[in-house]
Amino acid sequence: MTRTPFIAGNWKMNLDHLQSIAFVQKLAWSLSDAKHDFADAEVAVFPPFTDLRSVQSLISADDLPLGFGAQDLSQHDSGAYTGEVSGAFLAKLDCAYVIIGHSERRQYHAETDEVVNAKVSAAHRHGLVPVLCVGETAEDLEQHGASAVPVAQLRAALDGVDVSKGLVVAYEPVWAIGSGQAATPEQAQQVAAALRAVLAELAGDELAASTRILYGGSVKAANIASFLREPDVDGALVGGASLDIDEFSSIVRFKKHVGA
Ligand SMILES: O=C[C@H](O)COP(=O)(O)O
């Protein structure tokens, strides 16, 4: 089973819609450099909602080799939910992916496992592939080890969910996000393997073997190769470094062939 490596750039709350146009143009130019072969990696950016229309137009008009998605969606499809954005609207904008359950949503917006679960279903209703984030805090790590909380979050998020409708999992230890202190590749592998075992239990070996599991948390050009060498790590969800075109391009250029 071959899994195409996936490098995802989560811009978080950075770059307005005008900046996003210049950024995507420069990024596409940087990635088109023929000296570097990145053809085996799928690359996607996750801009703020307000940039999506601009990014969509640019990617489609210039046929750029970039995917894109949103950073969140509502668990509801429409109605009196002021400030929320429906998966239906994201699908209309050609989003392929949507990040769900990022630790910043869990922490600052009180998103529970139940809400995350409802959002995964909402994404599937609209044909979007969830990039489902799970990860332990420093306290969790100390008290329960690395895998327990991410595994529990994955089980809760997928309760009643048909994984065959599409899924990417992102393992992001909370303490590694934006800290400059990435997890070790060994820890990323250990947790990714535990997550894949849960996927096998819930959805069968074939789906587990074809589902991509990313690592996220202080990924940069200097450490991406060490993560991608691990057999169960299929790419990265990149935050800060995705806002630096040279750095992000260098990350993308580390390609990897997973499986056989
Ligand atoms: O979604 C991305 C993660 O939160 C990682 O962020 P970071 O690369 O800035 O540590």
Secondary structure blueprint with pairings:
Layout: E1 6-10, H1 17-31, E2 42-46, H2 52-62, E3 67-70, H3 87-92, E4 97-100, H4 103-108, H5 113-125, E5 129-134, H6 138-144, H7 148-157, E6 168-171, H8 185-203, H9 205-210, E7 212-216, H10 221-228, E8 235-238, H11 245-252
Helix pairs in contact: 1-2, 1-11, 7-8, 10-11
The structure holds glyceraldehyde-3-phosphate (G3H).
Q: Which structural traits does this protein have?
A:
260 residues, alpha/beta, TIM Barrel, 8-stranded parallel barrel, 11 helices, 8 strands, disordered C terminus, binds glyceraldehyde-3-phosphate
How would you sum up this structure, described in words?
The protein is an alpha/beta fold and 260 residues long. The chain has a single domain (6-252), classed as Aldolase class I (TIM Barrel), CATH 3.20.20. Helices cover 42% and strands 14% of the residues. It contains 11 helices and 8 strands. An 8-stranded parallel beta barrel has the order 1-2-3-4-5-6-7-8, surrounded by 6 helices. Helix 1 (17-31) crosses helix 11 (245-252), helix 7 (148-157) packs parallel to helix 8 and helix 10 packs parallel to helix 11. The longest helix has 19 residues, at 185-203. Mean pLDDT is 94; it is low at 256-260. The protein binds glyceraldehyde-3-phosphate. Pfam families: TIM (PF00121). GO terms for molecular function: triose-phosphate isomerase activity. Pathway: Carbohydrate biosynthesis; gluconeogenesis; Carbohydrate degradation; glycolysis; D-glyceraldehyde 3-phosphate from glycerone phosphate: step 1/1. Homodimer.
